[in-house]
Design brief:
The structure holds two protein chains of two kinds. By secondary structure, chain A is an alpha/beta fold. In chain A, 31% of the residues lie in helices and 25% in strands. The longest helix of chain A is centred in the C-terminal third of the chain and has 17 residues, at 172-188. The radius of gyration of chain A is 18 Å and the shape is globular. By secondary structure, chain B is mostly helical. In chain B, 80% of the residues lie in helices and 0% in strands. Chain B has helices spanning 4-23, 32-44, 47-79, 81-94, 103-110, 114-138, 142-150, 155-192, 198-207, 212-236, 240-243. Chain B is globular and about 75 Å long. The chains are: A alpha/beta, B mainly alpha. The interface between A and B is medium-sized, with 22 and 22 residues.
Chain lengths: 256, 248
């Protein structure tokens, strides 16, 4: 990394380790992970399946407690989930018994009816679900369900979003569309985003920085800055060069 | 054709019943026409409506009491794991005891009458509902609980806005099964503990002069009403906010 972090970190992960005791031994999932994420930054955490990157995100999100180390957000230690930072799950994160409107408005129970309705309408439109306000999740496609979950998250105006392989269960075409949608939404709503993925291309397309994780126990192998301006040209030499760096870092030959 | 099939099968079975009844020597077993005229006789004397209402009254009270107590209790026991673990052995011990085994005790406690019968129905529905509600909470996906927590829901709100709706499809199935059981039990309870209702009709018709046409008429009514109750509760499963829970 060439650039020094000047602004104070939004999210600060400090020497995080996590061990699960099992019947015979303990499994180490995370091993002294430290990372600083700046305000408004989009950081992809890239690693093979089962490496512990999801565990890391769950600790940062406040759902799991680390064995040692701590997570600070705005300088305050994370002790549990908080509506200022919303988690978007891989699938089945939306409430199936609520309509699109009901889901988007789920976190808005502290607001008055008028403001609630206004916010719902705004975010339904933002994620492109206009016309589906009274549809139930089971009537939506996989891509639409993920849009819905993103809308539900944005509606409470959080300043951090945690996305745990949010497009992992979608087909490759929908996935590509969803990525450009996410970047569009990000331009509209400045958020700090931690995005967990096992997809190298996804990370190069989205991230300001890519954090490459090792296999279990997860440690940070390398942090790669993606210095391509948006919109990113997926056939530019720089894109391919950065992708190759990540391929190599993950330990894959880029020939099949 | 498909719709006609059940009707024709029923017609064939009625015909077999009719012919079989004609071949018997004792003459005690009624044929379908005699049962029909037995129903007519009950209707004319106002007994049919009276007994049906008496049975439904007991089921309604026993069942509703069970629903409003068992479901909150089951949800709480499912939520507070420790409570569930503490009571689980007792629940498992009580479960295999048929509600009918409680008849003597319910008569001891409440005397012969409506309350004893209502108590039996309550017991029969209560335990399965508690266990089902407990399990339903355990089956709520972690993702949904985490999502609910993430939005800052307090425990009571989480219970009402996430756990209850997530458990509802399973609860409805349990409600349906336990209503069926409640209806089974009311008939048995009325044979012993009271002097009205369809269960009483069956025992009374036999005791008061081997009126087997009325016995079978009572059985037919029990079957029909059970069918209507089940169809009614099945309507709940068609609600849009629930349909997700029953596959596609």
């Amino acid at each position: 990394m060439g650039v020094r972090v000047v602004t104070p970190a939004k999210v600060s992960i400090r020497d995080l380790s996590m061990r699960f005791p099992t019947d015979r031994s303990t499994i180490e999932v995370l091993s002294s992970v430290s990372l600083e994420v700046k305000d408004g930054e989009l950081v992809c955490i890239l690693g093979p399946s089962g490496c512990g990157k999801s565990t890391l995100l769950n600790v940062v999100g406040g759902f799991l407690k680390a064995t040692t180390g701590e997570v600070l957000i705005d300088g305050q230690a994370v002790t549990g989930p908080d509506p200022r930072r919303i988690f978007v799950f891989q699938e089945r994160g939306v409430f199936p018994w609520l309509t699109v409107e009901g889901n988007v408005g789920f976190g808005l129970f502290r607001l008055g009816a008028a403001e609630r309705a206004e916010r719902i309408a705004h975010y339904v439109k933002l994620v492109g679900l206009s016309g589906f306000e009274s549809a139930y999740p089971q009537e939506l496609s996989g891509g639409m369900k993920q849009r819905l979950e993103v809308a539900r998250a944005l509606a409470v105006n959080p300043d951090v979003l945690f996305l745990d392989e949010p497009f992992g269960a979608l087909d490759s075409i929908t996935r590509l569309v969803m990525r450009s949608e996410l970047l569009r939404i990000r331009r509209a709503e400045k958020k700090t985003i931690l995005f967990v993925t096992h997809d190298i291309d996804e990370s190069v397309q989205l991230a300001d920085r890519v954090v490459v994780m090792s296999t279990r126990p997860a440690t940070i192998r390398r942090i790669v800055e993606i210095d391509i301006p948006h919109p990113r040209d997926l056939s530019s030499p720089r894109y391919i060069a950065l992708r190759d760096i990540l391929f190599e870092e993950i330990g894959l030959a880029h020939k099949i | 054709m498909k719709r006609l099939l059940p009707f024709s099968a029923t017609a064939v079975l009625l015909a077999v019943w009719f012919l079989a009844a004609r071949r018997q020597t004792s003459g005690l077993f009624p044929n379908p026409l005699q049962v029909l005229s037995g129903l007519g006789e009950l209707l004319r004397h106002g007994l049919l409506a009276k007994y049906v209402i008496a049975s439904l009254f007991r089921v309604t009270w026993g069942y509703l009491l069970a629903v409003v107590t068992a479901i909150p209790l089951g949800l709480l026991l499912g939520w507070y794991r420790r409570g569930g673990q503490a009571l689980n052995p007792l629940l498992q011990l009580l479960r295999p005891i048929s509600p009918l085994a409680w008849i003597p005790i319910s008569i001891l406690w409440f005397g012969v009458g409506d309350v004893a019968a209502i108590f039996l129905i309550f017991l029969a529905s209560f335990l399965p509902l508690v266990v089902a509600a407990m399990n339903a909470v355990g089956n709520v996906p972690t993702t949904l609980l985490r999502a609910g927590r993430n939005f800052g829901l307090s425990n009571p709100r989480l219970l009402r806005n996430v756990i209850l709706p997530a458990a509802l499809p399973q609860l409805i199935v349990a409600l349906r099964i336990s209503l069926g059981v409640a209806w089974l039990v009311v008939v048995a309870a009325e044979m012993i503990a009271v002097n009205s209702g369809l269960g009483f009709l069956i025992v009374d018709a036999r005791n008061a002069g081997n009126r087997y046409d009325l016995v079978v008429a009572g059985m037919v009514m029990i079957g029909l009403i059970g069918l209507v109750l089940d169809a009614g509760i099945r309507q709940l499963e068609k609600m849009k906010a629930l349909r997700w829970g029953y596959g596609s």
